[in-house]
Amino acid sequence: MAERLAITTDFITLAQLLKITDIIKSGGQAKAYLANEEVLLNGEQENRRGKKLYPGDLIETAGEAFVIEEESAEEAAERAEKAAILARFQAKEKKAAVKKSQSTPSKKKKPARKKPTGPSSWN
What we know:
Blueprint: E1 3-7, E2 12-13, H1 14-20, H2 30-36, E3 39-41, E4 44-45, E5 52-53, E6 58-61, E7 64-70, H3 73-103
Region (Disordered): 96-123
Keywords: RNA-binding
Pfam families: S4_2 (PF13275)
């Protein structure tokens, strides 16, 4: 059975799919992977790393199969909730950092000493 891969955009590229699914570690490895390994897109050989994959596409490689699907309404709501929680947390952390920096007395730098110059300083 194929593993479901929900996307939040209209499409993803084949290289993105390989990276998301941990088949490759970085996007730079996609070209070499596609040159050496068999990748089937809807049953046909595919070797273009920039090939756009849309909902409904079936990708088979490395003994695994993936079906591209649109993100469901529940998944979108959950992602939005997580983003809102993260934003509140970051705002709270930023506020605490500003408060801490305002309550800590700042250390004043000592003015640099002027060093004498000219013939009178040579003695």
